[in-house]
Amino acid sequence: MTGVVIVGVDGSETAMKAAQSAQHLAKALGASLRVVTAFDSDRTEVFEIGGDRWIVSDASEAEKVARTVAEKLQTEGLEVSYTAARGKPGEALISEAELVDARLIVVGNRRMQGLGRVLGSVANTVAHHAPCDVYIAKTDNRP
Length: 143
Known about the structure:
This protein is of the alpha/beta class.
């Protein structure tokens, strides 16, 4: 395999569309696929019921989202990994790309029109600051 393709997911339908595009691109490039979910806080809650104790954190919830998507994208001949990365989504994807020396970052085009375009979007942030190529997948339902 040559290189790593990174895709950011948040559990939404549009993110899954971007992830499926990333899966196809990774296979075509002979690369591995890394699924990343960002979390922006270190909030942790502890729940105790009887003798049982559960610890729930933003990081563990983000990792669960990434793992679920990674499992759905598993296919023969494709190495798929996942992680939770701290930071705002665009910044987290850029940091992860630098960490693994990614070949490509795949993001969806959500919030690329109208007010979202003016205020910024994950795709906009990544496109302007990525250390590698960026692919913006069409994930909205507009023609």
